[in-house]
Give the backbone structure.
Amino acid sequence: MQHLKIDNLHVSIGDREILRGLNLDLPTGQVHAIMGPNGSGKSTLAKVIAGHPDYTVTSGDVLFDGESILEMEPDVRARKGIFLAFQYPSEIPGVTIANFLRAALQARLPEGEELEATEYYAKLYEKMDLLEMPRTFTSRAVNEGFSGGEKKRCEILQMAMLQPTFALLDETDSGLDIDALKIVSHGVNSLRGPATGMLVITHYQRLLNYIVPDVVHVMVNGRIVESGTKELALKLEAEGYDWANEPESEAVGA
Ligand code: ADP
Ligand code: MG
């Protein structure tokens, strides 16, 4: 079993602190969900783990099996097995999906080793079938002119091809209609297993009906304020996040 551990993480952008002492332990073999209101820092957490350069870690650590990854470049982290499916995937004009994924897989092979084309396409088509993506997608530029749902499917296709050790899915459900949500969830569920840990970030409980998490964390104001079983997600659905907010005026007249 491997662990992705977030240890008392403090992160700022400019002079504003966004993550304020966040702790999390994600082992392989488990799916953890993070739920929280908009602006609580969920995407920031995902991007900091992946190595986004905009954010400054002021204290704390991110450990991949006990080793700090904070000094590692994003591509080094990716080759170690960290994958981030973006909330807002970028378009890469001029680069086809087939060439993009081929380059990504090639980059992980040792020097001098060549990706075998027949095997590569067999795997690509298998994963596309799983996600019910038409073959014509392979020759389209990455995310260019894609609908919201197509972009999210493309992110999951990348994950399926790269088979990461730790996958971070940032609001993969947003922009999906119910049929696409089922297909994407089916794809994600098929990648669950003892060698993979997943962090599923979502604003809504709906996704968790399809991707059933082992642990649910509630994030408010840059911290995990509660962790529990999947029933916690139902409580959030029913009661919203207000109960989890830090009371700011409790001292007054209390
Ligand atoms: P969530 O994903 O939970 O909605 P985010 O991590 O996207 O939250 O954002 C947390 C807070 O940090 C928000 O107030 C947001 O405006 C701010 N923030 C995030 N990224 C940036 C950035 N690149 N520049 C300025 N502020 C940012
Ligand atoms: Mg977000």
DSSP finds seven helices and twelve strands in the chain.
